[in-house]
Amino acid sequence: MSTVAHLLDAESATIEDLEQDPYPFFAHWREHAPVAYVPAVEGWMVSRWDDCEYIGKLEGATNSESLYSDSFFGRNILTMGGDPHARLRSAVDVPLRPKAVAKYVDALTRPVAREYVQRVREMGRFDASKDLLERISVRVVANVLGLSDFDDDTLQRWFNDLNQGLNNFAGDPEVDSRANTAKREIHEYSESVYPKLTADPDESILSALFTGNTEDEGPRPLDEIIGTAWVIVLGGFQEPGHAAAASLLGLLTEPEQYAAVVADPSLVPAAVHEGLRWIAPFGTVQRKALVDIEVDGITIPAGDEIQLAVASANRDERRYEDPERFDVFRPRQAQASFGYGEHFCAGHFLGREVERVALEEIVAGLPDLRLDPDRPVVEHGLFVRGVKNLPVMLGEQ
Q1: Has residue 68 got a pLDDT over 60?
Q2: CB burial class (10 A; 0-12, 13-18, 19+) of residue 200?
Q3: Residues 88, 209: contact at Cβ < 8 Å?
Q4: H-type helices in the chain, by residue range?
Q5: Which GO terms describe its molecular function (predicted)?
Q6: Coil, strand or helix at 348
Q7: Tell me: the pLDDT tens digits for 290-343?
């Protein structure tokens, strides 16, 4: 066995390696160990498209209990199953359905995106992730969630602190403290608006968590839904901002593709779709085996944790041509970034529409955008992955 192959073995992978750049590991595992036990994640990593889809859609064989999200968020919509999940999910779905989103997304997103595009236009050099896309995402999604009382800096701090807390595998007490502060502040705000929203519900997602689909049982107790509120804050802020950053990075890495989208903005939806495939905002879908599961000749024992590596499935050579490359002209195929089955992402349509509007405003207002050659792009994360820093500048090269 070569030294490189040995370093990419499942047993050799560290969580630090996987958070820094999981893609070489995924490529090796897809070829040599598509179902591999990875000690660093304390579970099985499934890396091929067909295998991820098979397990993800296998009814009654897994649930969504998670070694990580349960301990961090407590009981929440991602780890529920059966009727409790169905009732809460149906309540949350109402403001996130395509027809509902279509009524408000442009009015909520376009003015915000246009404002921030103008701000960075005046800066000349900026971080497109931190200064632009994260800020558009947190402001728009916060308004949908019912968190419009908070300024952008607070919302961005919550997002980053929850993100780092969820992925604090080193157990850094300062990281835990910041994450707990964010959770406490969200809890305190939810508690403060609970009486008003239960007496007079509005169209926000927070209101839906309190009273949606409760019939004659009365509002849900806050303690039952606060974990879901934390999950939605992290997931809702993560997907539009970092997914749009992935699309923008892909376009700027291939400048002729950015120029093509500037010339023809009808390509923006394709850029959104390709960015989601290229860098999945949530790199794995976490499941727990309820029964022994056999896949690719390997038996995953009941009770074991399973990571369906959708970030790897989205780059499976068996499904996509030249999958490591961002290609806005790629023939459209489904991608796995939103998960499977009953836990398919509730906010998938909202996320894509926020990205679409943001990117439309960027290509219209920043046609001369390019990567800053003097500062590095930073991607990070395994379970929650994003383009953390995207340094760019304006002007012809």
Answers
A1: no
A2: exposed
A3: yes
A4: 3-7, 15-20, 23-32, 49-56, 69-73, 82-93, 98-123, 134-145, 152-166, 173-199, 205-211, 222-253, 255-263, 268-278, 310-313, 348-365
A5: heme binding; iron ion binding; monooxygenase activity; oxidoreductase activity, acting on paired donors, with incorporation or reduction of molecular oxygen
A6: helix
A7: 999 999 999 999 999 999 999 999 999 999 999 999 999 999 999 999 988 777
Interval 372-381: pLDDT, tens: 999 999 999 9
> Which of 377, 395, 386 is closest to 134 using CA atoms?
386
Reply yes or no on whether the pLDDT at 197 is more than 60: yes
Most confident of 4-8, 171-175, 189-193, 244-248: 244-248
Q: Is pLDDT larger for residue 109 or for residue 61?
A: 109
* Predicted TM-score of the model (pTM): 0.91
What CA–CA distances, in Å, run from 104 to 185, 229, 300, 350, 379?
27, 21, 45, 10, 31
Residue recorded with tokens 């007496």:
199
User: Which residues on neighbouring strands pair with residue 311, listed in sequence order?
Assistant: none
Rounded Cα–Cα distance for residues 51 and 307 (Å) = 11
Per-residue pLDDT at 219: 87
Which class does domain 3-394 fall in? mainly alpha
| Per-residue three-class SS string for 227-262 | HHHHHHHHHHHHHHHHHHHHHHHHHHHCHHHHHHHH
Rounded Cα distance, 337 and 126, in Å: 28
- Structural domain spans, the chain: 3-394
Asked if residues 139 and 174 have their Cβ atoms less than 8 Å apart, the reply is no
